[in-house]
Amino acid sequence: MTYTLSYPIEVGSRKNYTPTQLAERAIECVTQLPARFRGKGPRLSYALMIGPDGKATIDRPDNANVQEWVATIDRTSCPDWLADEIREVLP
Prior knowledge:
Distance between the termini: 26 Å
Number of helices: 3
Low-confidence stretches: none
Strand order of the largest sheet: 1-3-2-4
Shape: globular
Radius of gyration: 12 Å
Number of strands: 4
Mean pLDDT: 86
Strand content: 15-25%
Helix content: 25-40%
Structural class: alpha+beta
Order of helices and strands: EHHEEEH
């Protein structure tokens, strides 16, 4: 998976991925970000959002759309927990 160095970062779509796959991709994305985007600490948080079109994106929490916000994640987040959070918001 290739990530752009600008926000928001597209993770995938509910049409193409299961909630478990979206969760794994989101955490992988946060883990793969270059150090300058992750910050110096291991616990820099990001907002995972799913829009009405079903696209999952990651952005900094201060830029997040509150209506689309699913969870706050970092590179130590549990994929199973995140998949459960995603399932709760998907129709």
